[in-house]
Structure formats: structure tokens, C-alpha cells
Specification:
3 domains, about 625 residues
Length: about 625
Amino acid sequence: MNVSHFPEKPLIIFDGECGFCRRWINRWIVFTDSRVDYDTAQKMGAIYPEIEKESFERSIQLIETDGNVYEGAEAVFRALSYAPGKTWLLGLYQKVSGFRALSEFFYRLVASHRVFFSNLTRFLWGDDLNPSTYRFAAQLFIKLMGVIYLFSFLSLASQILGLVGSKGILSAKEYLTLLHANYGSGAYFHVPTLFWFDASDLVLQTVCWTGVAGSLLVIGGISPAPVLFILWVLYLSLLNAGQDFMSFQWDNLLLESGFLSIFLASWRPGGKNDPVFRGFNASNLIRLLLYFLLFRLMFFSGMMKLRSGDPNWSHLTALTYHYQTQPLPTGAAWYFHFLPVGFHQFSALVMFGVELLAPFLIWGPRRLRSYAAAAITALQVLIMLTGNYCFFNLLTIVLCVPLIDDQTWPASCLYFFQSLEKRTPFSKNYGWPKWVVGTVAATALLGTLNQVPAILNFSIPALTIPSNILRPLRSFNQYGLFSVMTTERPEIIIEGSNNRITWKAYEFQYKPGDVMRRPGFNLPHQPRLDWQMWFAALGSYKEHPWFAGFCEKLLKGSPDVLRLLKNNPFPDDPPRYIQATLYDYHFADPQTHKKTGAWWVRERRSLYAPVVSLRNRA
């Protein structure tokens, strides 16, 4: 069909009395900007009498500048072809067999059931169908990454000398010297760390406190991208030199999140204030990579539990053990443990729902992303109530922030950040060049895509190679916590003696020891020695070489190591002998707790390791 009155620009005519139509037209206006005009059939019907009233009621009409008229799905795709980055839709319509018929079928289906699809649209997007922007989310995410880094560096600063200092349990300097002796210059690639230059106690502490200072700069919005890069290098250096004490999944998660955040942040202060996360720019790639990271973290955790073959997960009974067998339970875990079995089974079912279903909502429209963020956040909060997992749960919640667009956040939050930007001279943004972000995205995908077939129990060698090459950076990882549930709680009690008759116990900062001590909160701090003691109790001391070094430092009375403990029963001189005994711990039942005040009950199992002295080390 042709019309006699040619518009100056492509013109979309729609039913102005249809609220569903108006909401979608408002969205398209943002995409096409001033390249396409829009008006209502009620107004334009008289100007274009060639188009029948029934046609206006049936579908939208597009009038091109040459007078040609298109309707239905073709009108939609032709109009959107004037929007940058959306011409491919019209190409599909014109060239892909069957796409035209399928598109027109769905258009007619929607047009004839507008009330239903209007309600569905409200459910998925809300009342605002304008394209999502993420400026607030981007800034909040970067600042919260600074907070997580601050927690982690402060935690390490208080422990680093006792763990890997010159008089620590596992000397970083000795470790790196041994690596170089065995692998030569190849050791620099396999274990990238700044401590190759100097691993002295002063440098170890300086790196930790530099990380604290850098974290504060990120929180303050001062040159965030360069500082985030420095923080990533510093944390990578600590982890690669930290050996067994820096081998946790959340350390890798922080490195991966921190690496991506570098390319989301401004790379220098001043200049044009370009929106972050808006439109079709390079920053959207980083947002999608953050989505993929959160998806992998949650979905793979659920899948690993199912694939492990552990009947406690398949029968939904794992949580009947979890609260008392996890590494560092909180006081609330004691109360949760004694709830009915049915509650634990229901909780496990909900957990699987969040881990296996909510991740798919990440890829959906606005409200589905918000539901995913709410579900994942709620799960992390419940985990924090009952278990001390340092900054892991907080970091997972931070990864949910990019799911929430500016249209969803309360107006007060947006106003606060806008006013903060005006007062902060370092809030201006220079976006990263697209080729840089594209390279980062390609590298991240090459380093992580091998995990998708791996979770389905097969591998693609072409994807394994780049993953192996990138592994030393610890920024492209696979996740999956508690795939097999521990059903018992062995605990190692360390005691010292001068005569092998009278023994005095060393009490750790947070791990169970004294049965009268209530389990406490230590978030977001991670007492890394306490955590390693939990792992050591599950196996043999021969599987954990650091344990012998720990006993040796106790016999030598190393002040740095003793500061990792709650008490030193030998304040004057170190003991002549050290003994490690294995006990079975379980929560005291409510009656025993009420009667004795004890939170734990323990039974001696056996010696964990032979009695040692400086003359006879294990």
C-alpha cells in the first residue's frame, strides 16, 4: 500500500487509547531517538484516509518517506532498524526462512490478547519500559568492591606474618626460593607475585596496608580503575605466595570480580561524564560478564551438589548435619541445628531452588533480574546468620548489584549519588576503549567457557588450553562449595607440656575448643589458621605439611604465630612437647546446655599426630 502524503521521516502510527501500545512505543522512542516519528491513529487517521480504520485497530502502521506502508511485525522491525545496533532484526525477518511467518504469528497473538500481555509486561518489566540504565548500579558496585577489598586486606594484615612471614608457619620467602630452585625462570609465570622481588616481613605488611589504603581510595571514587588494578595485583601476589592459607574459593572469586571491576570503573579522573552501563557500549560487555560470573557461582554450586552423588543432598538431609559440621558455626547455628528434620529438608529444597533456578532469571527482563537478586541475597543473609564465611556472602550480594537497573532503585538512592557526583571532583568518567573491553571479554570467556561442558561431565580440549594458561592469574575460576556434606565434626586440640604428664591446651581464636565457649561471629574477618585446622581434622597430618611447621613454631614460641591464637598457656617459655589429639565434637542438646551451660559435647578419638619436640619433629 502507498499513501499520497509522504512524511519527512519514517512515521509509526499506533492506537493511542491502548496503554500496552503506549508503553512499548515509549521504549522504541528511546531506541530510535529522532530518526523515527510516532503519532496516534486517532490523530493521524484523517491525514491518511488510505489506511482503513480496521488496520489501525489491528496493528501498528509504519509509513516510510517514500509513501510505502508496512504493518505488524514488519513495521516493528523496519522502525527498529533505524536504531543503532538493531538492523539485524530486519535482516532476520527478510532473509531467514520461517522467521517472517513466526514473527507475524506472535504479533497477531499479542495484538489479539493485549490485556493478558499487558499484565505480563507489567510483571516482567513494571510500568516503565524504557531501556534499562545502570549508572547507579555501576558506581555502587565499584564502591562496594572497595569495601570488600578493605575487609580482605585488613583481615590479612592482622595475620600475614604468622601465616607466611619469616617466622610464620609457611615462610613465603622459603617457598619462593624453593620454587625458583625447581622451576627456574618458569616459576615467575606459574606463580606470579610481587614477592619475587622481596618477600621480607616489611614488604608483606606493606602490601597489606597498601591494599587497605587503595581500598579507601576506591570507596572515595579517586581514580578507581588504576587503583582497582593495583589492588588486583596486590591481592594476587598475596594469594600466590600464601600457599595453603590462601587457597579458598572466595579468594579466587574476589580476584575474578576485582578483575572485571577494573574495566567497569573510570580509568582516569576528569573529562566528559559518559554514562556507565548505558546503551550499546563496551561497558555492557563487563555487565554481562558479571552476570555470567554470578550465574556460574550459583548454578554450578547447585549442580556440583547434585553431581557429587552424596545421598545427603539427593535426600535433602544435608542440613541436618551442616550447621554443626561447617568450619566456623555461629551461635545461631546451634538453634537451627535442633529444628525439625522437615524444616531442614524444606530449607535444602529452597536452597536448590535458589542455586539452580534463580540464576536463569539473571538473563531475564528487569523484574526477573530483581527477583533473582532478592532470592540470592536472602540466601546469603541466611548463610551469614548461621556460618562465618568471611567476605564470601557479602561479595556474592555485591555481585547482585549490577542486576538492578536505575529504574528499579528508589529515587532517593539515585538523588544521593547524583548529588555526590556534583560534590566529588573525581567522579567524572572516561570509558575504556571498546577494543580493550572486547579483549578482556574474549579472554574471560576463553578462561571460563570450559566449565560449561565440564559440569556436564565432558570436556572440549580447545577450551581447556586457554583455561590452563590463565590459571596462574586465579581470575577465571570454577566454583562449587560443599559438594559433599561432612556428617561428623572431628576437631584437633593442640596441647603443650614440659613433662609429658601435665598438658595445657592452646585455644584458637574462633574454632571450637573449650566446650563452654559459645560459637561467635567473626564476619567479615577470616581466621585462616582456624579454617585450615578444620580441613586438617578431616584427613591425616601427613596430607597437610603446614601442620608440622605450625607445631614447630609453637615449640619455638614464635610471637607472630602465637598472635593467631586466643591464648598462650606458656607465656614465659615455650613448652618442650606438643601433642595433637583428635576429638569428635557435636552440639550439646538443649537439655545438656540448660543444665551445664556447655555448647559442645566432645569425645576423644585418638592422637592426631605423634608427640613432637624440637629434637623429634613429625
